[in-house]
Amino acid sequence: xxTRWCMVAALMLGGCAGLGETERFxxxxxxxxxxxxxxxxxxxxxxxxxxxxxxxxxxxxxxxRVGADGVLLLDQRIRQGDAPVRERRWRIRPDGPGRYxxxxxxxxxxxxxxxxxxxxxxxxxxxxxLDMEQWLFLEPGGQVAHNRMVVRKLGLTVAVLxxxxxxxxxxxxxxxxx
Length: 178
Prior knowledge:
The protein is built from two helices and ten strands; from the N terminus they run ααββββββββββ. It has helices at residues 2-14, 34-38; strands at residues 40-50, 56-66, 72-80, 86-94, 99-104, 111-116, 119-125, 131-138, 144-153, 156-167.
């Protein structure tokens, strides 16, 4: 009985997870422009904490380009712990001032986003019924962003990812995309 109550308490406390430490990165500038930041190559190093599991290392190699229609196409190769590499693709386009809409191969339905200052806030639901929220904060200089992703199931936080994304120099391209 005590174990059950501990699990319920952990789930309830987990539901309180949010921006936490990442909120300290919020600022009115530089403005976060997804197409400008993600065009070209970038690399992310992250720590993923899934409820009741040890933290896992995650790396993400991305290659983005902006089409003539203004749509950001972002191809990613994700390495999570010992799992096989997986690939996904984002398509993001402006949808009015400070608003974005798009798709993601992992998502069931649309991806929506809003920009406020240096923060990009994304939301989508996965094919497995998980609600995903991401807050990306652009650092001064525009070459580094901090990403906090919170994963919820039935309103309860089940995982949190903290990532630092660095743009590659313009002439480089991740080996994963060559």
